[in-house]
Amino acid sequence: MKVAIVAVGRLRAGPEHELITDYLHRFDRIGRGLGLGPARVIEVDDRKGGGMAAEADLLDRAIPAGACLAVLDERGALMTSPEFAAELGRWRDHGRPEMAFVIGGADGIAPALRSRADLSLSFGRMVWPHLLARAMLAEQLYRAASILAGAPYHRA
Asked: Can you list the domains of the chain with their CATH numbers?
C-alpha cells in the first residue's frame, strides 16, 4: 500500500525537510517487506489566496485516485502509536492500493473534504505548525511500520 502525504505549502530545504525525508526513507525501508510504501509527499500551493475552499480543491485534485483518505485535524481521533499501526495494517490488509494523509493550510481543512475522510486523526488537542505536523506524521508512519514488523524502535 503506497502512502501519500498531501499537504498545503512548500517545504524548503532545511532541517525539517531532512527530518521528514529521513523518516520516510526509514518507513520505505522497513515497510517494503510489510507491503507498505513507498511514501511520497505531494505539495499544493494556493498562490491566489483563495482560502480554505481553494486549498480544498487543490488538495482534492492531488489525492491519488482510489486512496483511503485520512485528514489531520485537531478535532480528530486521538490514537496511540500501536492503534495507528493496527489501523494502517487493516487498510493494507483490506487491499487499499494507497493511503493519503491530508494536512490543510492555516485555516484547516474545508468541512466538505473533511467529511469524506475515512479517518480524522489528531496529534493532540493543541494546534501544531504544519511543518511539525508533517514531521510527526512521517515519524509515526515509520513507528507504525516498526510496530508491525516487530522491530524494537517502539518500546511502549
From this structure: 7-149 (3.40.1280.10)
Q: What pTM was computed for the model?
A: 0.94
- State the distance between the two ends of the chain, measured CA to CA, in whole angstroms: 26
CB–CB of 30/124 below 8 Å? no
The pLDDT tens digits of the residues spanning 106-125 come to: 888 999 999 999 999 999 98
Type and span of the H or E element at 14: none
Instruction: Give the separation between CA 1 and CA 95, rounded to whole angstroms.
Output: 8
Residue from 105, 113, 110, 117 nearest 76 by CA:
117
Q: Look up residue 105 and give its DSSP letter.
A: B
Q: Which candidate, 104, 122, 127, places its Cα nearest to that of 46?
A: 104
Question: Residue 67 pLDDT more than 80?
Answer: yes
**What's the rounded Cα separation, in Å, for the pair 88 and 99?**
9
| Coil, helix or strand at residue 122 | strand
H or E, element range at 10: none
